[in-house]
Here is the input.
Amino acid sequence: MALSVQISRIRDGFDDLPLPTYATDGAAGMDLRAAITDPILLEPGDRASVPTGIAIALPEGYECQVRPRSGLAARQGITMLNTPGTVDEDYRGEIQVIVINHGREPFRICRGERIAQAVIARYERVVWTEVKSLNATGRGNGGFGSTGTV
Here is the structure.
């Protein structure tokens, strides 16, 4: 059974753009599109906040993770600065995607282009229990490659 999530188009003139959709039956992410009138040209190293024209109302206990599209990252070096971006359940503003060009060539974002993907995920809230020390493990405080590369 699919989760029902309310969505609203909040930009006039973009009703022809599809709502976020899954590209395949097994996809976890839905494509988000650029709700822009004029193209955005990103030179190498440039970044821009790209509007999607939509706002959502998530059920309690859910977040929307906004993630880069792997094809844009692999082929053009286009990704997001805050990845994954989190849309909280109580946010009602427009979803925007902070895109950056890590590639070597300028990249043009056009109206309706698929620029990111959205994954709806359940999350848990925690209550911290402060203790003097944590239980020991075999790994301990080893991090940043301490387990090797092979």
Observations:
- DSSP finds one helix and twelve strands in the chain.
- The domain at 6-122 is CATH 2.70.40.10 (Deoxyuridine 5'-Triphosphate Nucleotidohydrolase; Chain A).
- The longest strand covers residues 114-122.
